[in-house]
Write a structure and sequence with these properties.
By secondary structure, the chain is an all-alpha fold. The protein has one domain. It is built from 6 helices and no strands. Helix 1 packs parallel to helix 5 and helix 4 packs antiparallel against helix 6. The model has no long low-confidence stretch (mean pLDDT 89).
Length: 118
C-alpha cells in the first residue's frame, strides 16, 4: 500500500502541533500552582491539551486516507526536532553537536523507514 502525500502532510502538521503542545505544557506548568483545579483552569495547559486533541484528529484523518504506519509514525518523530529548535529559540537551550547528530539519525531513520515500506 502506498502512503498518500495528504496523510504524510497530516502527520507533519501533527508534529508541529505536538511540539506546540509541549511548549504550552511547559509554560503552563511554570505558571500553575499546586492542585488539580489550578491545572484545569490554566489556559496554557488547556491549550496544550487542545493541541494534542488536534494531533489525534490529524492522526485519524491520515489513517482514514490510507498509508502505512511504518511510514507515517516516523514523520511524527520530527516533533523532537521542532521541540529542540523551539527550545533553543524560546528558552535559549543549547543544541549541541551530539543533538544535531541525533536529529540527523532521526531524519535518516525516517527516510529509511519510508523507503523500506514503499
Amino acid at each position: 500500500m502506498k502512503t498518500p502525500v495528504e496523510s504524510m502532510v497530516c502527520f507533519l502538521v501533527a508534529s508541529l502541533l505536538g511540539a506546540a503542545g509541549q511548549f504550552l505544557y511547559k509554560s503552563g506548568a511554570a505558571r500553575a500552582v499546586d492542585g488539580p483545579l489550578s491545572y484545569l483552569l490554566n489556559l496554557r495547559l488547556l491549550g496544550g491539551v487542545a493541541c494534542y486533541i488536534g494531533v489525534m484528529v490529524l492522526f485519524i484523518t491520515a489513517f482514514k486516507r490510507g498509508g502505512q504506519l511504518s511510514v507515517l509514525y516516523p514523520i511524527y518523530a520530527t516533533s523532537f526536532i521542532f521541540s529542540a529548535i523551539g527550545a533553543a529559540w524560546i528558552y535559549g537551550e543549547p543544541i549541541r553537536p551530539i543533538n544535531i547528530a541525533g536529529m540527523g539519525f532521526l531524519v535518516t531513520g525516517m527516510f529509511l523507514m519510508g523507503w523500506k515500506a514503499s
